[in-house]
Amino acid sequence: MSSGTGKYERLLEQCTKLAPVPTAVAHPCEKTALAGALEAGEKGLITPILVGPAAKIRSIAASAGIELGTTEIVDTPHSQASAAKAVELVRAGRAELLMKGSLHTDELLGAVVARETGLRTGRRISHVFVMDVPTYHKVLVVTDAAINIAPTLEDKVDICQNAIDLAVDMGVKKPKVAILAAVETVTSKMPSTIDAAALCKMADRGQITGGILDGPLAFDNAISKEAAAIKGIQSAVAGDPDILLVPDLEAGNMLAKQLTFLANADGAGLVLGARVPIILTSRSDSVRSRIASCAVAKLVAHARREKLKGS
What we know:
By secondary structure, this protein is of the alpha/beta class. The chain has helices at about 5-15, 30-40, 55-65, 80-90, 105-115, 155-170, 190-205, 220-225, 225-230, 250-260, 285-310, and strands at about 20-25, 45-50, 70-75, 95-100, 125-130, 140-145, 175-180, 210-215, 245, 265-270, 280.
């Protein structure tokens, strides 16, 4: 496989011709969260609207030497109010993206899924890591490694469709989805293999659209054409997946973190399935990951604008 340098940089290149997207940043009350949002603003990816205690945001900026300039600040008393207000800005059309600041993910998603005031759609909400793995030849999407703990078959349909739609918005014509399990044969002893087989048939029947699915595939068969050939697996996906659909959150979380810490991968985090993409970054994320999260979200926001124009 070819070396994987420059995959995120190509994403940023795709973004250069597109206008920055108004983004509600919920509670950026910590140095890295504030700096990350403002840097994405400087790079022309987003136009940040900072939602949180204004005095605290200004104080953090001053002590960290961060220039706020003319960045809009919407004053709120605490993190819960910040989440609610940021979601309200999206509902009102003032922001097209939502970005997590330094509040807990559960607080932000609580405001997103609130029945009357949130950003729910008919889809299940799911998480993707858009990963730049140095040893892999293209951007790799891992889902779901952060939200759905033990997804049912029906949940996996939405998780899969969310990821396919994202990959299409990123410019992949027909994303290839490898549905992971521990083995590549279907057995009732491993329910994930039955889910994988069902998902493939559902795609044949048009219940999942826009992608090429194969599974169950063990990780080696999914990533390596040679490993698949040794096992006698004939697959359009093996060796070239755009998306890895994991059986459950524990498997996904371990996989994403192994790629990050053993293979030096960068992982951009997004939540999909709500009315707008939600940029989820963690304090341990590299600047490169944070910027890439904003770049991917920007591509999705612009793709949505085009779809709305066409509808």
